[in-house]
Amino acid sequence: MTDSVAGTFGATYDASGNVEGETLPGGYTLSTVSDETGFTTSRFYTRDTDGIALLSDAAVPTVHGQASSSTRSAGAGYSQDFRYDRTGRLTDVDESGTYGSQHRAYSFDANSNRTRLVSARDQDGTPVSTTTDYTYDTADSLTGTGITYDAFGRTLTKPGTTFGYYANDLVRRQTCGDRRKTWSLDAQGRLASSTAETLDGQGAVTASVSSVNHYRNGTDSPSWTVEDVAANLRSRNVTSLSGNLAAVTGTSGGTVLQLTDLHGDAGVALPLDPAQPLAVADTDEYRNVREGTASARYNWPTAHMRESDTPSGAILMGVRQYDPSIGRFLSVDPVYGGNANPYEYCSGDSNNCTDLGGDCSSSKLCCTFSVDNPHPSHTVKGRINVHADVALVRLGKDGLRLQGRRGRVQSPRGGQLGAAWHLLLLQGRGRFHGLDRPGRVREQGLRYGHKPPKTLPQRVG
């Protein structure tokens, strides 16, 4: 694949048709290694002329497919060991290398809310330890001084920061200290434009920069952006053959390669112009930016272009905002069961899981129904049949989306088709209850309401 500005991208594939290596403009190569289960154990970028590694990231999996240890280098390097509890939640991180010797321990309640973080490090030969405790109400909302919510469970304030929302729960505004940013949406609910402002002590605007996103398809990842409307500064996102962000080109044609780690996070921003310095970026397991490393517009997850250069530091993850400082979303999950509770991220395992859309983590199986054509059964008195399109969605690293079979859903005998339908996700493989033809998907159950609807819902789940 040849981009008119960035250059030529190539790919190599394994026996199953998965991308296992890429060639990049400027003479660089990406190589990956996977084990027999499909777990990617290493990812490294090298310079073709001398074989020097610019970024390498390797991990050893457990029998459950979670990383038990990892080793990363980008200039300097470090190694980490991970431990999990019986439910798969990340509880301990031991680290040594670039950032010194560190230990982080996480505790959770029964709903996977983080209740305590103990962080210890060796700072100039002196051990330093801090402990942070967290409390929650019965709705799993984080409580504390300066934290408030609106009637819909959306975070309005936290110390030093305020948030505003649109009626569909998407971000409208963030204000933190002397920085304020306001977003507008397009007809599909994507981030169309934004205005970043600097405020004085009285709240008056002293500087303002407006930007506009442009999309070439139905995704919420921008194809190109006018970074500064007044100065006509533009950047264009170039994806590789794997479908992930690989380079960013500028107004004058300069190209910066985006080298990412196993998790899809920013690792190295590498300009093809040798006169320009490279920038090393890094985050911890909850994606807090590491001290002394660069912050970028798409710091995490870079490969999928989730905006992270916000005043509050919250990352715009699809339909919700994710706050890495507390490892939680700032509003409730629009999909029931998409995570362990309405606010938490990835069932306590952000190290191996992602929730790119803000509605269903990659550790969960999410499903929706589209129903139409309600009609009385011709064979069973009192039964109402509808046609249903089953959309089975598994959001993983590559945003996999599967379409299930089309079948017929029936209400209970003698029952009425309810206005509010819910899908109850159960464990194990099985079939769709109520479908004339079983689908090869996870077992589902349907719960019906008691009153007939005036209009049939077009989307449930």
UniProtKB/TrEMBL annotation:
Residues 441-461 are annotated as: Disordered. It comes from the Bacteria. This is RHS repeat-associated core domain-containing protein. The lineage of its organism: Bacteria, Bacillati, Actinomycetota, Actinomycetes, Kitasatosporales.
